[in-house]
Amino acid sequence: MTSDPTLDEALARLLPHWLPTQRWFAAKGRAIASVSVVAAVPLPVADGPRVDHVLVAVAFADGGPAQHYQLHVARDTAPAGEFDHVTIGPVGDRIAYDGLWDPRVTAWLLGAVRTGTEVGDLRFIPEPGAEIPEPGPGRVLGVEQSNTSVVWGDCSILKTFRLVQPGVNPDLELHRALRSVGSTQVAALQGAVEGTLHDEPVTLGMLQDYAANSADGWAMALASVRDLFAEADLHADEVGGDFAGEAARLGETIAIVHAQLRTALGEGSRDAAELVANWTARLDTAVAEIPDLAPYTEAIRAVYAEVAGSVATQRVHGDLHLGQTLRTPQGWLVLDFEGEPAAPLAERVRPDSALRDVAGMLRSFDYAAFHSFAGDPEPDQQRLWHAGEWAQRNRAAFCDGYALRAGRDPREDGALLRAFELNKAVYEVVYETRNRPSWVSIPLDSIARLVAVTRS
């Protein structure tokens, strides 16, 4: 509870209905048992609405662990119509809405980071030497799923973590580490917002340079695939939109980031048997839920069994795919070092093989190539052949680029790389079955290809 019982009671009543309608809410499909305010800190926004920074606990009817979410709850007597789509509901004699959409609130947030403001348990921390612009109104980007980002012109972007867990978020931790070694392969960190959750430190937001003149890696790959499909008589290397050069440069970038993370945070090793046990446990759970995996189970286990000995480990991205990359005029940038958002924090910060990231990107090339066939019971065979050609060409180009910078080709560790790919594909089968059933053929077909390579 907080010092404002009106706010506590209203949010407990309103949020069970409002939260599931938000794109960033991570528990869609789970029945909410209750929502309670864990902490609320009033923010001194001058000449604006009343604003509270709020952390809420969401309990579920299935009895699973509670989740914690971050909100900036603004309250005004007559909010502007532009806030209708983020209106939470009445709180006393005012209307509450998501304050991140209010330019008066975002101007205050930028100024707070710039000046190193502290309010209650909230700490707005500028990075030493960072150039943070003068406060001004920001605008919310509408493309994210799990977080909310606000941008100021072409200068800064504040990522606000919606689902929060006690501890330092790996996205902030790894960006600080990469900044310490002068990395230019990530957007420079300008500052952070930190607080307290159940008496433990918690990361609430990150302010970074904004790469305004950039292109999303996933969108670029899809455009390349479309170009190939439009030129039915040409091969992938003959089409003007050939992506292989960019895939190779992206491979170089990932290898550089891996080297920088080793320099900043060191490296170690893990017993392969531990990895195999984790992969096997995921496979057993997946097969019990999804019978379509059963025909491949023994072949997958055979790939896992080839992995033995000691595996070199380091801090890695943990959830790498084309959508986590941006192409700028200067080169590729890597984004979002949170790891798999649904995984516990202890798992997301644990060192792993760099091949986990390589495998994640290889899976992403398969998705880019084959996603347009999702749900099509009779796909065009010529287009299907071209999709396979595109995937193979770009997977190879990425590995070539990675090898150029890393000094070792990831394909030389074939069994370990295939095992990481298969483990990721098994995860994807579960995810797609639960969320996008028409897409499940993409990882299932990839599993069939990967085990066929092993058998041959």
Question: Top keywords for this entry?
Answer:
Phosphorylase Kinase, domain 1, 23% strand, six-stranded antiparallel sheet, glycogen metabolism, Aminoglycoside 3'-phosphotransferase, Chain: A, domain 2, alpha+beta, seven-stranded antiparallel sheet, 456 residues
Q: Could you describe the 3D structure shown?
A:
This protein is of the alpha+beta class. It folds into 3 domains: 5-98; 103-209, Phosphorylase Kinase, domain 1, CATH 3.30.200; 215-316 and 351-455, Aminoglycoside 3'-phosphotransferase, Chain: A, domain 2 (Alpha-Beta Complex), CATH 3.90.1200. Helix content is 40%, strand content 23%. It has 12 helices and 18 strands. The protein has helices spanning 5-18, 103-115, 170-180, 217-230, 244-265, 272-289, 297-305, 345-348, 355-370, 381-406, 414-435, 441-455; strands at residues 32-43, 50-60, 67-76, 87-91, 94-98, 118-119, 122-126, 139-140, 147-152, 156-161, 163-164, 189-197, 200-209, 215-216, 267-271, 310-314, 325-328, 331-334. The strands form 4 sheets. It has a 7-stranded antiparallel β-sheet with strand order 6-7-12-13-10-9-8. Strands 1, 2, 3, 4, 5 and 11 form a 6-stranded antiparallel β-sheet that branches. A hairpin with a 2-residue loop joins strand 4 (87-91) and strand 5. The longest helix is centred in the C-terminal third of the chain and has 26 residues, at 381-406. The radius of gyration is 23 Å and the shape is globular. The protein starts with a helix and ends with a helix. The mean pLDDT is 94. Monomer. It catalyses: D-maltose + ATP = alpha-maltose 1-phosphate + ADP + H(+). Keywords: ATP-binding, Carbohydrate metabolism, Glycogen biosynthesis, Glycogen metabolism, Kinase, Nucleotide-binding, Transferase. Belongs to the aminoglycoside phosphotransferase family. It holds the Pfam family Mak_N_cap.
